[in-house]
Amino acid sequence: MYVSARERLILDVLIDREEEMTVKDLADGIDVSVRTIHRDLKGIEQIIEAYDLSLVKKAGVGVQLVGSKNKRDELKMAMSHLSYNEYTPDERQTMLLCALLESVEPVKLVSLANDLRVTIATVSNDLTKIEKALEPFQLTVVRRRGYGVELEGSEAAKRRAMRKIISEHVNEVDFLTLVKESIQKKSKDPTDSISERLLGLVEKKKLFVVEKVVKEINAGLPYPVADSAYIGLVVHLALAIERIERGGTIQMDHAYFNQLKAAPEFDIAREMTEKLQAVFQMDIPEAEVGYITMHLQGAKLRQDKEYVLEESSFQVALKAKGLIHFVESKLGVGLLENQSLFQGLVVHLKPAMYRIHQKMGIANPLLERIQTDYGELFSVVREAAQHVFPSVDIPDEEIGYLVMHFGSALPGAKPPVPLHAYIICSTGIGTSKMLAARLQQEVPELASVQNISVFELNSMKADGNLVISTIPLPNFDHDHIVVSPMLTKEDLTKVHAYLRRHSAAPVRVTAPVSKPPVRSFSQIKESIQTIGRYTDALQSVLEQLSVRHSEKKEVDDVLKEACENLDSIRSEQTVVQAIQEREKLSGIGIPGTKLAFFHAKHPDVLKPSLTICKVKVPIVLAGMDRQPMESDTLLIMLAPDPYHAEGLEVLSTISSILIESDDSIELFQSGREEEVKEYTASKLEAFLYEKITELRSV
């Protein structure tokens, strides 16, 4: 069977579509003329006839591919195994880029043209387009007559470009299939598929071994990583080993490397490096440990919790609040009280800003759809980002992810009825939250939605539950629905059709009065224990909460005095020292306020506490923006180390309360003890009720 590149594009659009599509929309979608589409449809009719499929054309309505799901799947499978004789322009440019990135010496134009079965003029035109795409990576295409073509730029830039094109063209299923299955295949036949060609930038065996090492280390991480970030790390490491073997060396600023050494991820990165050195019998430069650390820092995914007490998260929380405040004022919608939005933004922003600052590249395959469906919100969020991050050039891909967070917070929730759904959404928390919010808004039958990883797929119990995925799941035995993360009308039609087929009773639009689901003894016991830990932490903080007025003029003296007045500390000296060590890592003044936020975790802290110290003479210290500022209110938050997750979440909530609004900042700066205590207690009481409700619904 021969299928041209354009015919493949048309079939890709029609094969999963349940409704008619106008020829004009089809033409616009693949950037050709209506006349070209009509001509190609004749060839497509001959192709699909062998699969008992047909094209139904209705004047004024559009064209539709008609036939059973099994036959559609057969056609899909056949197309995926085709040997490509012709590439689309996008595929061709990707193949060209692969060839240039792989090569260690100039490549002749005629050789590239022969490989791609096109003219030299076409290759030359493609190279011009590639040049523009490579500008953000600081890579240039060098073309000289009689010399050939090569890429000029640093090793780090080439690796960033490799990771970017792999992330854009290879989905998680392609990756997993290659890593898990291709090693066992005896056949060495070359393949022309784009996914395999891209992953061919590294040896398959290297991918397999690296993935095994990352999987072992990943199991010991204190936080999960998104599927896409996990795969990005595997690809990064495999590329690194491949490039080191070819003599490619990567450099890192010495001062910045020393800064990374203090990060908890550095030890994990070193462990990975040591394992890989042992497996591949090679020396891996220390700079690579730094780059792996950056990847780990840029891969954090903490579901719905981010402990603001930890490291630089408080600074990120300030930025998140700034974004929410700006968008709220522009749209006239109440968002500042939305804790889910705030927590989701903090979770997302910390690694995202890290990736932006380190020029690690951001891919967002949904960008075009987001800009189309959420045009106004996209503009507002972009304006908000420019306002909150004036000195940072934030790419549209990142704006798109921020829009997902705000988009999931804007629709009003409807009362659900008991039906559970699993969502497999590999691109991260923003995408999955938006999809969950849209589903619960449009499908009120969903009582709960649980996000799971594609790696957890085979171990989960899907019986009796709705499984919705944003990526194809070819080896998954249970019924499931594949939808766009943006949840189109066609997707909703599929979801409702699924519910009708799998429900004994008709699907009801309004929620009936129903009994709460029966929970097991162990579930109830675990919930009560969790509530107990929340309550214990809240009680400790409220008991220790105090507003003090100090005559001291030096920061260290104020800290020492505050710690001496706490009965929840074993040794004031070691705790003050821990606070001072934390202060050295980054600024502690909150820009635009008179507040300074000191915090530390230490074994000599017996119970969590919050102390507010008012000083008569403002103290000059470094702000979180690294600029000097005056502070007359020192907030000192302490926690035991180690401490349970519930306690850390309580402290995280208190941190967000401090900067919740201009009014809250003014209150904490005022030093009015009774008002501060009442405000904090009421907020923490609301937090506890929210947690109890959340735990009872699990």
- The parts where pLDDT drops under 50 for at least 5 residues are 179-192, 301-311, 412-417, 504-516
Structural class, by secondary structure, is: alpha/beta
The overall average pLDDT, rounded, is 77
CATH topology of the largest domain: Mannitol-specific EII, Chain A
CATH architectural arrangement of the largest domain: 3-Layer(aba) Sandwich
Distance between the termini: 51 Å
CATH class label of the largest domain: Alpha Beta
Shape: globular
| Strands, count | 12
Query: How many domain modules?
Result: 6
How would a crystallographer describe the biggest sheet?
4 strands, parallel
Beta content: 5-15%
Helical content band? 40-55%
CATH superfamily of the largest domain: Mannitol-specific EII, Chain A
Tally of separate helices: 28
User: Which strands sit side by side, in order, in the main sheet?
Assistant: 6-5-7-8
Walkthrough of the structure:
The protein has 698 residues and is α/β, with parallel strands linked by helices. Strands 6-5-7-8 form a 4-stranded parallel beta sheet, with helices on one face. It has a 4-stranded mixed beta sheet with strand order 9-11-12-10, with helices on both faces. It has a two-stranded antiparallel sheet with strand order 1-2. The two termini are 51 Å apart. Helix 21 links the parallel strand 5 and strand 6. It has helices spanning 5-14, 23-30, 34-49, 69-80, 89-102, 109-116, 120-134, 155-169, 172-181, 194-199, 204-218, 227-245, 254-261, 264-280, 286-297, 313-331, 339-357, 367-373, 375-388, 396-409, 429-442, 489-501, 521-544, 555-564, 572-585, 645-658, 662-670, 673-696; strands at 54-58, 62-66, 140-144, 148-152, 420-424, 448-452, 466-469, 481-482, 546-550, 595-602, 609-622, 628-640. It folds into 6 domains: 5-80, Arc Repressor Mutant, subunit A; 89-153, Winged helix-like DNA-binding domain superfamily/Winged helix DNA-binding domain (Arc Repressor Mutant, subunit A); 160-182 and 193-297, PTS-regulatory domain, PRD (Orthogonal Bundle), CATH 1.10.1790.10; 313-409, PRD domain (PTS-regulatory domain, PRD, Orthogonal Bundle), CATH 1.10.1790; 420-488, Rossmann fold (3-Layer(aba) Sandwich), CATH 3.40.50.2300; 527-696, Mannitol-specific EII, Chain A, CATH 3.40.930.10. The protein is built from 28 helices and 12 strands.
